[in-house]
Amino acid sequence: MNTFGHIFRLTTFGESHGPAMGGVIDGIPAGLVIDLREVAVQLARRRPGTGEGVSRRREEDRCEFLSGLMEVDADGRPAGSVSMSSAEVVTLGTPIGFIIRNIDQRSKDYDALRHVFRPSHADYAWQMKYGIRDWRGGGRSSGRETVCRVVAGAVARQILSRKYGILISARLSDFGTAGCNGENLGMAIEDAVKSGDSIGGIVECRVAGLPVGLGEPVFGKLQQMLASAMMSIGGIKGFEYGAGFGAARLRGTSAADCMHIDSDGNPAFSTNYSGGIQGGISNGEEVVMRVAFKPTPTVSAPLHTIDDAGREVVLEARGRHDPCIAVRAVPVVESMAAITLLDAVLMNMVARFDRPD
Amino acid sequence: MNTFGHIFRLTTFGESHGPAMGGVIDGIPAGLVIDLREVAVQLARRRPGTGEGVSRRREEDRCEFLSGLMEVDADGRPAGSVSMSSAEVVTLGTPIGFIIRNIDQRSKDYDALRHVFRPSHADYAWQMKYGIRDWRGGGRSSGRETVCRVVAGAVARQILSRKYGILISARLSDFGTAGCNGENLGMAIEDAVKSGDSIGGIVECRVAGLPVGLGEPVFGKLQQMLASAMMSIGGIKGFEYGAGFGAARLRGTSAADCMHIDSDGNPAFSTNYSGGIQGGISNGEEVVMRVAFKPTPTVSAPLHTIDDAGREVVLEARGRHDPCIAVRAVPVVESMAAITLLDAVLMNMVARFDRPD
Amino acid sequence: MNTFGHIFRLTTFGESHGPAMGGVIDGIPAGLVIDLREVAVQLARRRPGTGEGVSRRREEDRCEFLSGLMEVDADGRPAGSVSMSSAEVVTLGTPIGFIIRNIDQRSKDYDALRHVFRPSHADYAWQMKYGIRDWRGGGRSSGRETVCRVVAGAVARQILSRKYGILISARLSDFGTAGCNGENLGMAIEDAVKSGDSIGGIVECRVAGLPVGLGEPVFGKLQQMLASAMMSIGGIKGFEYGAGFGAARLRGTSAADCMHIDSDGNPAFSTNYSGGIQGGISNGEEVVMRVAFKPTPTVSAPLHTIDDAGREVVLEARGRHDPCIAVRAVPVVESMAAITLLDAVLMNMVARFDRPD
Amino acid sequence: MNTFGHIFRLTTFGESHGPAMGGVIDGIPAGLVIDLREVAVQLARRRPGTGEGVSRRREEDRCEFLSGLMEVDADGRPAGSVSMSSAEVVTLGTPIGFIIRNIDQRSKDYDALRHVFRPSHADYAWQMKYGIRDWRGGGRSSGRETVCRVVAGAVARQILSRKYGILISARLSDFGTAGCNGENLGMAIEDAVKSGDSIGGIVECRVAGLPVGLGEPVFGKLQQMLASAMMSIGGIKGFEYGAGFGAARLRGTSAADCMHIDSDGNPAFSTNYSGGIQGGISNGEEVVMRVAFKPTPTVSAPLHTIDDAGREVVLEARGRHDPCIAVRAVPVVESMAAITLLDAVLMNMVARFDRPD
After folding, report:
1. Do residues A226 and A289 touch, judged by C-beta distance below 8 A?
2. Nearest CA of chain B to the CA of D63: how many Å?
3. pTM of this prediction?
4. Taking Cα atoms as reference points, which of D237, D231, D25, D225 lies closest to residue C219?
5. pLDDT tens-place string over residues D271-311
6. Confidence of residue D57 (pLDDT cuts 50, 70, 90)
7. How far is A274 from chain C (nearest CA, A)?
8. What is the pLDDT of residue B357?
9. Chain D nearest C-alpha distance from A116 (Å)
10. What is residue B59's predicted lDDT score, i.e. its pLDDT?
11. A294 with B128: Cβ contact below 8 A
12. Band of the pLDDT at D229, cuts 50, 70, 90?
């Protein structure tokens, strides 16, 4: 259960304070050009300390690619192994293995948490499930696990963009008690930090340029694949697309996406309550979805909890943490969207043999 | 992509106006007693015409079990094949095949829709994807497909209940513009029907008695499995659990599920913002989730759309339809929860070898 | 574990003396024409009593298709549901559900075997694994289970043949102590029957017309997929392809399939020790494989065994049985080859985006 | 298609002359003690230059474990990250990521092969399938890929041995034209090397101590899982178990594994023609299987072939190669058996709820 996807598949591994995070991207077609600098760009977006409202912990996220890719010569033919300085490379059709070393770990910071179950973390449930856990920074449950998703997403989005013109962009659309904009974002976070607290947020993700036909009618509905992708991200409490929860308050006549023939003679939709997906299949309109992040569970304010010896304790977290996980999660949401949609594109290639040109 | 689950797996087939719906339940352990009358009870809950606010179309949903089960004698030993009148039977550990014949189909009712793309239905996207479709009542995209989920759910919930004391119950919690209760439900639906319209609704599902430890930390998070299950149901536009979308507006100190030792000396949670799941793993608290259904897209009021020859047409649906799909969807939601949770229970059996007793 | 395949997938169910056998064919592309009479033809080849050396038990193997297919009108457009008398039909891209009723079961014949573990059958291992079993005719372990494979194979082979010109044919190539031909086949079987015994045999399967490129380099090697397919057939004790076990006795220079440019200017192989597969990938040559069937384990001669109460007993089988399972298995071998190869064809469609025309 | 297994799953990546080989072991239960020195021991068995009849190329196969494991303290509790010098460690229940750097690659040796399709290698079929390939040493198709299987196998076999007393051992049982023993092995290889040639061989693998009940009755038969595992190893042309191909020449009365009650009062088999598997399920007897390796396709003697420009060329391989791949393959065969059997053990844990003790 550390693999996501059907044809385009990502398998990840790694504990936050172990030697490395890493993954294997399987099912990627051969002969595609990938710009590895784009991977670095996306990793930088996720990195702490590079934006407002993010923790100051310094993570070096240098991704080393170990397989599945080769340098190309001027004619686009494979010319040798990739290295840390490779730019444009080509896929071999074989699995892409990669690792990101964990450095600056400060595992000692977590000694005090070795026997404590932090409230609203995985700690207690994990211990009961496995009987053993890596207590340092959440181990496998750490948000650090998402770094591998960003690597795979950075690969997938390039293919979607170059081959199909599919563009994915997410943003923090709402948080705290007010609408989110450049000014009050910083203030709200600053306010939460001052009181040793944290805030939640909503991330909206839009996908433009999707062809009609992605997704399967029953157990592979596109919204199902996307919901599964998003809900696999730690801290997300809800997913909706199109009219979302608001649809429950609409009438059928109001929520109908009526069709017409546009001025170019093509089928067109008058509205997009469907969020670009009908009957589980993309209809060519923009896909719009929103996910809700809870506030970072680690706060400096004292919280009541218990330890693994069954004693009640009061916890005052001292480690580094983000006051709003939704901020850094934006590229993670985009990455999971990209991974899912490329998978859907590949799955759709076998839906019928003879396509109209 | 017509299979759901990892160990406990449901594969379904069937178009709404074809000969039959059916499915295969695989991965069910041997030696479990199942009461087939419970299947009939659950099918009756989903059947149209049996409650307020549901269509009057008469579907005979008699499930015929074809394999995987045997009648038992007084000593609980297998005694012969199951029949339509079997009550308590026992699982063989082999796949349970079943069918439900489609009768009272009135396929002729759909002749007028053969070339028309109904707004907010799968029709247009389906035609573009496959180049061919069964136009009669939605074919594979019909809500009728959920009948197979109810069969599998009725099997799964018995096992969860008898073996683990896990209880699942859903209800229509909210719809239209007001809170939902016995009185205004009927009125709101009646009101919608009068104007040839339909309404949406929110279904809340609660699961009590779950053990700690179900779900996997990364790509098999329990909320991910449940979201995938729910979002595979047609007409659902959103999923949330625990504090859900409201969590985005909370602060970390408010949303923390603090722990203490209760009067019996056991670990306990003071609140349940987590909705019974932390880090993707059940923590023993009640699992609470909500899904939002859009209003039935088929309405009697005229809607603008196009046909498969690229002409604009006005559609006034005449067929039978539910004014509120959320009403009949309640047992479907429960069924998908049951299927998912039994799968999670089985998956958890291999998480560690040595369990404390 | 009742599903075979990756994209083109067959799920089966059914006990030999339960109400019906059946299956679900998933992953079949839309818009393909299938002749259902071909299914009947293949089922007839497998049916007992229709050839030399097969049991006289009468099985009515009428396959009822329940979904995924529609009748077509003169223009090839879907026109209505399939029936038992349908001939040419078209695929909808949805799962094809089908059942074959079990009739003429004579379950009473098996009462004596209810508590006995037949030698070299699944009985003992099954009872120990599941703690419960359908003792009638082997239940799920019966050779009757292969009827569903023949249905799916009859569908798959049509697509392979029409779309790609791929032809699959198997034959009993060797058995008993002598080479197999029309004359001595009957004699050897007659001889075995006279002494209440049975014989084994080797089935060779050849596939012509395969394109280059099917199969995956590591864990989806074409020979691996084919071996898995064949070894899932009951009674098969060995699989080999190309030079097979004989390759172990060759030298590298003798076993090298040297290449040259043929008179048409195309790449060509001088020999085919590779059996049409190199590095797990089809190379365009004929695929040649052989499987070894053990003799039917049910014989009339007395055999020592035990019952489920731990008593030693002597078993003299009275039921109907084939003196040589390899005879009826020929269409089963072909069917599993067809299912596997169509899956490989579909998998190969996503190996690269840009194909040379 | 770079993942093997159902619950215990191995995903591998790596080209022979890329930066590293590696893999992810998923589905391993938590709390198991693993001795990493055993991994080194198994890798040494596979390493070239350490036995008779193996190539003198020097591969440094140092496996670095990156996740899923922790050092333990004296009380067996997790104490810190693993390192290259770790001995006994404990599983966390999370995926075990590992890499083995490729060193001493001499990629230049392969420049001459960049455009040539070596006879009986993957080269031609690969190029046609993917349109691009890593020509250096076979790339992903290299036998070097098996190093990852040996790592996973070394982990799996420890669990099988410690928890269940299951022991796996393989040996080169036959090769060339004569039976294989300590004396003539070396001679035959020396003889082949002198003439610039190579030889094939048969490896027999035996598994003792298996419990009754592993394997599934239809599409997960134990022999099917084992055949799939073995046939995924490069160079294997055939698989058989128990009486194998010889069974085709037996009569039913000769091949029956009769049962009796032994002197301890336990069920026992008089013979083992079934090779420890009946109806796809282990019966508690020794599992015996044999695989046939073709001779190493790379030989020094000149061979006719073509290049990727469609020209005929004569190839005289100069690189290092094993004169008999079956020799080094012995631990690979054992490893694939271990991986498969641990998977079967875990799958069997969910076959029934209530086991007799």
Report:
1. yes
2. 25
3. 0.96
4. D231
5. 999 999 999 999 999 999 999 999 999 888 899 999 999 99
6. low
7. 23
8. 41
9. 15
10. 53
11. no
12. very high
Give the pLDDT confidence score for residue C178 in this predicted structure. Answer: 54
Which residue from D minimizes the CA distance to B163? Answer: D353
Average pLDDT over residues B106-130: 90
Share of chain D above pLDDT 70, in %: 92
**pLDDT band with cut points at 50, 70 and 90 for residue A188:** confident
Contact between residue B203 and residue B173 where contact means Cβ atoms under 8 Å apart? yes
Residue D357's pLDDT is what? 41
Residue of chain C whose Cα is closest to the Cα of B19: C66
Name which of A231-240, B174-183, B194-203, C188-197 the model is least confident about: B174-183
Structure tokens at C40: 């009947």
Cα–Cα distance measured from residue B92 to residue C132, given in angstroms and rounded to the nearest whole number: 6
Beta carbons of B94 and C15 less than 8 Å apart: yes
Pairwise CA distance, residues A64 & A82, whole Å? 9
Q: Tell me the pLDDT band of D208, cut-offs 50, 70 and 90.
A: very high
Cβ distance D57 to D104 under 8 Å? yes
C199 DSSP assignment: B
Q: Is D20 on the interface with C (CB under 8 A)?
A: no
Q: List the single best residue of C353, C354, C355, C357 to mutate versus A (max A Cβ within 10 A).
A: C353
Question: What backbone torsions phi and psi does residue C133 show, to the nearest 5 degrees?
Answer: -155, 155
Any idea how long chain A is? 357
DSSP B197-231: --B-EEEEEEEESPPTT-S-SSTT-HHHHHHHHHH
- Reference B331, options B36, B44, B35, B34; nearest CA is B44
CB-CB under 8 Å, C346 with A29: no
Quickly state the pLDDT bin for C357 (edges 50, 70, 90): very low
Average per-residue pLDDT in chain D? 91
Token pair of C44 as six digits: 């007839």
Is residue A173 classed as helix, strand or coil in its secondary structure?
A: strand
Q: From residue D306, give the alpha-carbon distance in Å to each of C55, C94, C281, D123, D142.
A: 52, 44, 18, 11, 20
The answer to whether D139 faces chain A, any CB pair under 8 Å, is yes
CA distance to B51, B52, B302, per residue, from B56 (Å): 10, 10, 21
- Interface-testing mutation among B348, B350, B354, B357, with chain D (most D C-beta atoms within 10 A): B350
Task: Say if the Cβ atoms of D19 and A64 lie within 8 Å.
Answer: yes
Output C331 or A74, whichever has higher pLDDT: C331
Q: Which residue of A has its CA nearest to B281?
A: A125
Please state the three-class secondary structure of A129-149 as a single string.
HHCCCCCHHHHHHCHHHHHHH
Long-range contacts of the stretch A69-76 (C-beta < 8 A, 24+): A69/A34, A69/A36, A69/A96, A70/D18, A70/D134, A72/A33, A76/A33
**Unique residue bearing structure tokens 């569903």:** C148
Contact D337, D226 (CB under 8 A): yes
Higher pLDDT pick, B348 / A111: B348
Cβ of residue C93 closer than 8 Å to a chain B Cβ: yes
Q: How far apart are CA C265 and CA C31, in angstroms?
A: 36
The answer, for C346 touching chain D at a CB cutoff of 8 Å, is no
Q: What is the pLDDT of residues B24-82, one digit of tens each?
A: 999 999 999 999 999 999 999 998 765 555 555 555 799 999 999 999 998 888 899 99
Nearest CB among A163, A217, A354 relative to C353 is that of: A163
Instruction: Check if A169 contacts D (Cβ < 8 Å).
Output: no
